Amino acid sequence: MKIILNQDVPNLGEEGDVCVVKDGYARNYLLPTGAAVLYTNENLSIFKSRAAAIEKRKVAKREASASLKAKLDDVTLQVVVSAGESGKLFGSVTALMVQEELAKLGFDIERKRIEVATHSIKMTGVYSARIHLYESESSVIKLNVVSEAEVKAAEKEAAKAAKEAAEKAAKEAEEAAKAEEPAAEPVAEEAAAEQN
Prior knowledge:
Elements: E1 2-5, E2 18-20, H1 23-33, E3 36-38, H2 41-49, H3 51-72, E4 76-81, H4 95-104, E5 114-115, E6 125-132, E7 138-147, H5 148-195
Parallel strand pairs: 4-7
Antiparallel strand pairs: 1-2, 1-3, 5-6, 6-7
């Protein structure tokens, strides 16, 4: 069946493209969801009249994709998962987990655009994931897969170090206050003597 895409459809085409697809795909998905319309002379003339606006949107999407790629290329995500003592994961790192971590950093990316090689991520360590942006453009981000036990141990260590630093600072402040006390008393005695 010949159709005209009403919006971008992954692995098929962009808005305004004329495509030939299987009848069931068109009848059951593309036409009911409004992603496409039938290829007719009337619909073709409508899309030709909107060609300039469609091209303008495509240029805007390309620019947004390029700026997003520049930001994503510098991203390293820390994914915390359950793992055994040897570092073997209880499960796997999924695209949903990556999407949630990206959302925490302020990136709104659809899960279906994230490609994680889950079969290769079976141990803690550093891996990569590919994010498909627009057209053939994609970005590769680094995934630092760590065990929950390692994170908890690091948090305890950091809390202990912070507590020790606070105690040390309080002790130094107390010693500094004691060192200044004797010097402050003669000044007070001099002030009292001047008043008399």
